[in-house]
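Lab notebook, design round three. We kept the backbone fixed and only want residue identities now. Task for the bench partner: fill in a sequence for the structure below.
Input structure tokens:
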């Protein structure tokens, strides 16, 4: 069951709900989203399509039953 307050974007949970693009380090926001979706039983975490280039200052740790969806036009770059 999805966590209350999380919105879905194209059937996926948006990393923006975990602070991506709003002052939270990108890798932290993405990892928080992945962890929560895994705890909810699995699903999709999507980087918002208007995110452009996302600079990661740390690693992303995938978990079971979670898909990370990176839309066309979005780039993840490790700094």
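Proposed sequence:
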């Amino acid at each position: 069951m999805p966590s209350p307050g999380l919105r879905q974007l194209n059937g996926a949970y948006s990393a923006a709900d975990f602070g991506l693009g709003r002052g939270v380090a990108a890798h932290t926001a993405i990892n928080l989203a992945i962890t929560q979706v895994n705890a909810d039983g699995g699903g999709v975490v999507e980087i918002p399509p208007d995110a452009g280039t996302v600079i990661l200052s740390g690693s992303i740790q995938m978990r079971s039953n979670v898909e990370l969806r990176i839309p066309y036009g979005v780039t993840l770059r490790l700094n």
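Keep this in mind before ordering anything: The radius of gyration is 11 Å.
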